[in-house]
């Protein structure tokens, strides 16, 4: 789904929305929200915001269970081991979503094994350059790459990661040749960009921002179709490369078989929370654009992202293990 269409979809007046059927007595005990990222990460912070807010409504704890590893695949395996009774949720992020298109021999299928609850928001990746690179804009970078095919090196969090696919999309749309250098995480890619071991990299906004403000790295562009509020002076890559769009995103899902009444109730509460000013401002301070999309919005988003990401993975030639 194009982002503009997504915003249109979630702007439908509440009067047109179907009434939410409350699940009798839910929740009667604490809920487990499994995330595939480390404590202190973006998904962890967002999950704890959701947990605190829903506690105010239900007077039941939402326990955030951090299980990092394998790009989030460990969290998916654990979630599917739980009974589909509404008391186990998972944070589905773009990281795990992309990994599921790359990795082989997974024990789960995101499309078939998980039901949508809510799409919380999106976050941009930033195209970062070492300040010594003679490119002060995306156009400069493209011109430089065309003059020196294969000479510009870009780092990523690993083959098939979102940062890698961000680079693949740029080279694909601009018909340029830049050398991909995969790392085991985006932190090392950033460090090596600062050291000029690679000239450019892509990083999610919260990770990129300190290095931009310090001047250690130069922000050339943001990956969504429009500029990021926290970086209003940094153009969208799409301003120079029409059709370019990449996002990081955060959502909540549950194991297949979870009662619809519970899914609807949780979805309504999460969407309501995400629309509240205090909650939304906290997300915006992290560089996250609030979507607050219900189950249908997330279903549509996942379907369209599956098509788009799978095509990019094929172009990238990424191979999983």
Task: Explain what this protein looks like in three dimensions.
The protein is α/β, with parallel strands linked by helices and 321 residues long. The chain folds into two domains: 3-123 and 248-316, Bordetella uptake gene, domain 1 (D-Maltodextrin-Binding Protein, domain 2), CATH 3.40.190.150; 125-239, D-Maltodextrin-Binding Protein, domain 2, CATH 3.40.190.10. The protein is built from twelve helices and eleven strands. The strands form two sheets. Strands 2-1-3-10-4-11 form a six-stranded mixed β-sheet, with helices on both faces. α2 (42-58) packs across α10 (260-275) and α4 (94-102) crosses α12.
Compressed to H and E, one letter per element, the order equals: HEHEHEHHEEHEHEHEHEEHHEH
- Provide the number of structural domains: 2
C-alpha-based Rg, rounded: 20 Å
Low-confidence stretches: 11-20
Defining key terms:
D-Maltodextrin-Binding Protein, domain 2, 2 domains, 12 helices, five-stranded mixed sheet, six-stranded mixed sheet, alpha/beta
């Amino acid at each position: 789904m194009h982002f503009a269409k997504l915003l249109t979809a979630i702007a439908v007046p509440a009067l047109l929305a179907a009434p939410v059927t409350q699940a009798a007595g839910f929740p009667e005990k604490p809920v487990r929200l499994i995330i595939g990222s480390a404590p202190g990460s973006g998904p962890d912070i967002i999950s704890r915001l959701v947990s605190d807010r829903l506690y105010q409504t239900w007077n039941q704890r939402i326990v955030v269970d951090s299980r990092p590893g394998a790009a989030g695949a460990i969290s998916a395996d654990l979630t599917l081991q739980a009974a589909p009774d509404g008391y186990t949720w998972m944070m589905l992020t773009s990281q795990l979503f992309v990994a599921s298109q790359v990795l082989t021999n997974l024990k789960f299928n995101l499309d078939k094994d998980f039901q949508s609850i809510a799409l919380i928001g999106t976050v941009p990746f930033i195209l970062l350059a070492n300040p010594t690179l003679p490119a002060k804009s995306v156009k400069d970078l493209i011109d430089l790459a065309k003059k020196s095919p294969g000479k510009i090196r870009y780092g990523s969090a690993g083959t098939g990661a979102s940062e890698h696919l961000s680079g693949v999309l740029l080279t694909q749309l601009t018909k340029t040749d830049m050398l991909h250098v995969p790392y085991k995480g985006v932190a090392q890619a950033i460090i090596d960009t600062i050291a000029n071991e690679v000239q450019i990299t892509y990083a999610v906004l919260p990770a990129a921002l300190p290095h931009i403000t310090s001047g250690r790295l130069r922000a050339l562009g943001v990956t969504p179709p429009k500029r990021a509020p926290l970086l209003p002076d940094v153009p969208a890559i799409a301003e120079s490369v029409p059709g370019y769009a990449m996002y990081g995103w955060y959502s909540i899902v549950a194991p297949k078989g979870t009662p619809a009444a519970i899914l609807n109730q949780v979805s309504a509460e999460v969407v309501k929370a995400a629309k509240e000013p205090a909650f939304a401002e906290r997300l915006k301070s992290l560089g996250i654009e609030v979507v607050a999309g219900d189950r249908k919005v997330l279903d549509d988003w996942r379907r369209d992202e599956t098509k788009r990401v799978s095509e990019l993975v094929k172009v990238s030639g990424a191979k999983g293990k």
